[in-house]
Amino acid sequence: MSTEELQTLVLNTLDQQTTIQDSKDLSFNGSPVDQLVLLGALSSLKSKNMVDFAPIERIVWSLTEEGQQLAKEGSHEARVFEAIPPGEEGLPIAELQAKFGPAAKAGQGKAFKNKWITKKGNNLVRAVDSIVDQTQKELQEIQSTGTLGNDKALAELKKRTLIDKQKLTTYSVSKGPEFSLEIKKEATDITVEMLQSGEWKNATFKKYNFDAAGVPPAGGHLHPLMKVRQEFREIFFEMGFQEMPTNCFAESSFWNFDALFQPQQHPARDAHDTFFLK
């Protein structure tokens, strides 16, 4: 869904209902609206004073990958129970593990805890005639509503890593002072063509956002030679050397100039802020 289609959906809904109490109820072609995409569409409309909106924050629960599988196929403990045939003979433990793999251990433990099965020799037998897969029902309820009324059951499902807590933000939306079903295209610059034709007189211009942060300047970088010099300083410091206050020293011009074969009257001698002492 494009931003333009989403904006049209919001404006048409507001025109019919005056307000949108909760954007979680919005749908497009039968599918729920992505709230993150909706935020961009609402912000664009608000910048034109067409709508006002406020966030609604709530905690919801979602199923993990394993939780989705159990909601569809049934819990491990229920599948273990169904795999054991009725009667006194039961099912060998090794056969159960071969059938379900790692899930057999978890399902077997929960089934024992629920007193659905018992152990008879090396076999597992049913302790009850029938069961209700409450775990699957709870997962299906969370899948459809995002929550569960039983806090103890939520804690148990979280402990089994079947659900995750998530923060969901939706929005309440109302009409703005310049609400309209038509979204006017705003000009951002005055072009030469607009000045020549006089179109600028009737054009609608986008307002400047004086609170927007500017682009940080790219200047102020260290010179590569200064970076290398600093690296060598740090190396010498780590080796135990101490820096001498050479800025306080009076040095011989012989080593700075004559030893470098710089002529006595060369202008470069004055270019380095050289002061001579007698």
Report on this structure.
- The chain has 278 residues and is α+β, with helices and mostly antiparallel strands.
- Among the domains are: 1-64 and 165-205, Ribosomal Protein S8, Chain: A, domain 1, CATH 3.30.1370.240; 76-132, Orthogonal Bundle (Arc Repressor Mutant, subunit A), CATH 1.10.10.
- It has helices at 3-17, 35-47, 65-73, 76-83, 93-100, 103-113, 134-145, 151-159, 192-197, 224-238, 253-256, 268-271, and strands at residues 19-20, 27-28, 31-32, 51-63, 91-92, 117-120, 123-126, 163-175.
- The strands form 3 sheets. The protein has a 3-stranded antiparallel sheet.
- Helix 1 (3-17) packs across helix 2 (35-47), helix 3 crosses helix 7 (134-145) and helix 4 (76-83) crosses helix 6 (103-113).
Topology:
Blueprint: H1 3-17, E1 19-20, E2 27-28, E3 31-32, H2 35-47, E4 51-63, H3 65-73, H4 76-83, E5 91-92, H5 93-100, H6 103-113, E6 117-120, E7 123-126, H7 134-145, H8 151-159, E8 163-175, H9 192-197, H10 224-238, H11 253-256, H12 268-271
Antiparallel strand pairs: 1-8, 2-3, 4-8, 5-7, 6-7
Helix pairs in contact: 1-2, 3-7, 4-6
